[in-house]
Design goal:
The protein has 137 residues and is of the alpha+beta class. The protein has two helices and five strands, in the order αββαβββ. It is 30% helix and 32% strand.
Length: 137
């Protein structure tokens, strides 16, 4: 479990305040949040978001699958970056473990969601988001 100084180091590594706000790269946004999780210590929540155009002829499911892969890769890259930054600043490795949706006593997370926000017969606008939570050990 991290001590207070290491929590501050982690917060500086995932800083998403003014000036570093969104890590915009290739049209998507990855945000971080740390939460105190009662008895279990801290939780790191990573959220991937993007807006996209959906061709109704190709179907929503194909876009959902494509962005499931893209979001997983982007989140994994950001986690690697955070771990490297944490190791450089704190002098030790950051150990995190992904929460699974079937964990006992917790409500399951909806991993990814593609919501259509604008309907047109030729083109649909959608908002895709994915949330993954990690337990900080």
């Amino acid at each position: 479990m991290l001590n207070l100084q290491e929590i501050r180091v982690l917060e500086s590594c995932i800083n998403t305040t003014f000036g570093k706000s969104s890590y915009r790269d290739m049209g998507h946004n990855v945000k971080f949040k740390t939460m105190n999780h009662c008895d279990d210590g801290y939780v790191l929540e990573v959220r991937f978001e993007t807006l996209l155009n959906v061709n109704p002829r190709e179907g929503i499911a194909s876009y959902q699958k494509e962005y499931d892969d893209k979001s997983r890769k982007a989140i994994d890259e950001e986690i690697k970056r955070v771990k490297a930054d944490f190791r450089a600043e704190a002098g030790r490795a950051l150990k995190i473990k992904e929460f699974k949706s079937d964990r006992p006593g917790h409500e399951p997370l909806k991993e990814s969601h593609l919501e259509i926000i604008s309907y047109n017969s030729a083109l649909l606008r959608g908002k895709y988001s994915r949330i993954i939570q990690y337990h900080i050990e």
